[in-house]
Specification:
alpha/beta, 9-stranded mixed beta sheet, binds guanosine-5'-diphosphate
Length: 417
């Protein structure tokens, strides 16, 4: 299918923070798994003839095997999630495509998506679509097919469509980033429902704004809702279509400062999700269209419109800068939110199993000392009996001795008469 397979192993990428943490925590859970299984074997051994562990003790420990298994399953699927929002046609799909280095999502006029699209890695070589709640895989080979499939399936606004794309083709997908494209915030009244369904577990939100206009009330409202449901959401603002500024270079700085100030104000003062200084690091002026074109060319994919406006390199660097800061933010946030609870649960399981083993150990030593005690009591009783016996024997001896003496005496008396 003409796919260009690229070697994108980037050990310096901040995404590796997540990738390495995931590997580590997976390894730890393999150890916990072994430990729990050993404990089960031990419990079975001590529940046999000697009955140190009760069937309940064995069942309690066995329950941890499936618990650990369930956590390992969740861990395998854990990923970093970024959700893109903004008004229709601001360039959300184009931003996602540029980040994926390929035209994966359909974009442009006539391709307004009215459902949520979640792009994620596929472990096979194939690209396919799957609608939430259905197991049916719809194969897609090209973007036009994807656009067609999306239209044909008459998706509802509330639906979530999974787009599985070969991991080997995109660095972000390979490193377990999942990207969610949304219908424009201007076309739906169901903001609350969206957030609840698709965004509560997002590590990063990207607002794709239009640098040719100011932030709209609908865009602002959406993030007001997000920040009431999620504490301190990580929000980036991309002022897209910044290539338009090339036609009016004399106003460039002025317009940029004005936009930047408004965005800083929105994030720090209105939403209060970060300080003004932090907000400055979250705002970028880019051209997704140019970034995508540049990347398509790098991968020697056929592209049209070869002429890029003045300053495209600066805008491209800013896009790359955004990606780096985004990667750092998303991997740290995902490690904190996803792995912190797993490691807490892992610790608890290890502690519980340890406590159960301790209990069995204590019971065994109690049983041992009670046997010793029984023996001691028996021993004392025996000694007492022995003493009594000795005393009785002595008395008997004396008695018999005296009897013999008296008999002898009587006999001798009789004889002498
Ligand atoms: P979405 O509805 O937010 O997903 O927007 P799209 O990604 O579909 O983009 C809408 C249109 O804007 C498409 O024709 C894109 O080619 C165009 N577009 C996207 N980004 C840029 C940009 O940075 N500069 C310019 N000039 N056009 C852009």
């Amino acid at each position: 299918n003409g796919a260009v397979r690229v070697n994108m192993t980037n050990v310096d990428s901040p995404l590796q923070i997540f990738v390495r943490a995931k590997k580590k925590i997976n390894d730890i859970f393999i150890e916990i798994d072994d430990y729990v299984k050993d404990a089960v074997t031990f419990m079975h051994a001590v529940s046999g003839e000697n009955k140190i562990a009760t069937p309940q003790d064995v069942a309690n420990i066995e329950a941890y095997v499936s618990k650990v298994q369930a956590i390992r399953e969740v861990l395998k699927r854990d990923h970093m999630k970024v959700a893109f929002f903004g008004r229709t046609s601001n360039g959300k799909s184009t931003v996602i495509n540029a980040m994926l280095h390929d035209k994966i999502l359909p974009s442009g006029i006539g391709h307004t998506t009215n459902c949520f699209l979640q792009v994620e890695g596929s472990d096979t070589d194939e690209a396919f679509l799957r609608t939430e709640g259905s197991e049916e895989k719809l194969n897609v080979q090209s973007v036009s097919q994807l656009g067609h499939a999306l239209c044909a399936s008459r998706l509802q606004e509330r639906a979530l469509v999974h787009v599985h794309w070969p991991r080997e083709l995109c660095a972000l997908l390979r490193d377990d980033v999942v990207l969610v494209d949304s219908p424009g915030v201007d076309v739906t009244p169901n903001l609350d429902e969206w957030i609840d369904r698709y965004c509560l577990d997002a590590d990063v939100f990207v607002l794709v704004a239009n640098a040719e206009s100011t932030l709209m009330v609908t865009e602002k409202n959406f993030f007001h809702k997000v920040s009431t449901k999620i504490s301190q959401p990580n929000i980036f603002i991309l002022n897209n279509r910044w290539d338009a500024s090339a036609s009016e270079p004399e106003y460039l700085d002025q317009v940029r400062t004005q936009h930047a100030n408004r965005c800083v104000d929105f994030l720090s003062r209105e939403l209060r999700v970060c300080t003004p200084k932090e907000a400055e690091e979250r705002i970028f002026f880019i051209s997704a269209k140019e970034a995508l074109l540049t990347r398509m060319r790098e991968r020697e994919k056929p592209v049209s419109s070869p002429i890029l406006a003045d300053g495209h390199q600066v805008r491209y660097f800013e896009f790359v800068d955004f990606e780096r800061k985004f990667e750092e933010c998303i991997s740290k946030s995902a490690v904190r939110t996803k792995f912190a609870q797993h490691s807490r649960r892992g610790k608890n399981i290890a502690a519980d199993v340890m406590a159960a083993l301790d209990q069995v150990y204590n019971k065994a030593s109690d049983m041992k000392s009670s046997k010793v005690e029984k023996q001691r009591v028996l021993h004392e009783q025996l000694s007492a009996v022995e003493e009594q016996l000795t005393a009785i024997t002595r008395q008997m001896k004396d008695k018999i001795g005296r009897m013999v003496e008296s008999v002898e005496h009587k006999v001798s008396l009789t004889l002498s008469q």
